Amino acid sequence: MEESEATESTKSMEATEEVSKAFEFRQCVSILKSTGKKAKSLRELRDILSTSSDACIFHHTYQYFLKGHILEYTNDFAHWAGESLEERALSEQLSNLDPYDFKEMSGVRNNLLKIIDNYLKSFPEPREAIHGDEFYFNESIIVVFPVGVRVENLAQFLIAIKYVDSGCIYYHFYEARYRLGSGFDDFSLWIEQVLGKHELVEKLKAIDPFMHSIEGIREHIVDAVEAEVRKEMEVIQ
After folding, report:
1. Which mean pLDDT values do the consecutive 10-residue runs of the chain (237 residues) have?
2. Residue 2 in 3-state DSSP?
3. In the chain, domain spans
4. Would the pTM of this model clear 0.85, i.e. be above it?
5. Which of 92, 189, 202, 203 lies in disulfide reach of 184, CB 3.0 to 4.6 Å?
């Protein structure tokens, strides 16, 4: 190989390595798909839930925060129990379920059923939802696409995280926990593996995904990253 060709090859390899170290923001949108099933009572909910598809359960649990619902609850089942059935004790128990504790959707389903079954033992005749306020079982198709924003350092990341769409925050902070199956989100993983900012990673991992809206998550990430960037600037000065 001639020297010029070797030089070009080296440059190409370096460029590829640089791109791999960059963080590319992606966004997801949810396209709703009705199953045609609905429940007006807790027993009906339980029966349909027992045979619902994994995609249906995923939609009503993992994707709850993508819909911008009430923070008092953490999934659609808890939301319906609290708002439509006015069964506050049940909604609290359902909200305590963390879907990220389970590697398989069957684990989420079984624990939801267990909570409902135990509740029905203590309260065998819970109230029904009024007409028009039934629980509608849905699935969704998730479309993921790049948004054309790529960052290579923490300062660039800070600017981007302030302005990307909320769908980006959901995809990289919430959806990644299920996709990666490691308890990490995409932001923490990149900052850990590429930037080596271990203390910052611990701060991001400490953000409770169930205690904040997506915009609240954004604010906490911005605060943590901004503090780190400020510290870096003080060291340089």
Report:
1. 44 42 93 95 97 95 83 92 95 94 92 98 92 96 93 96 95 90 87 95 92 92 95 72
2. coil
3. 29-139, 153-236
4. no
5. 189
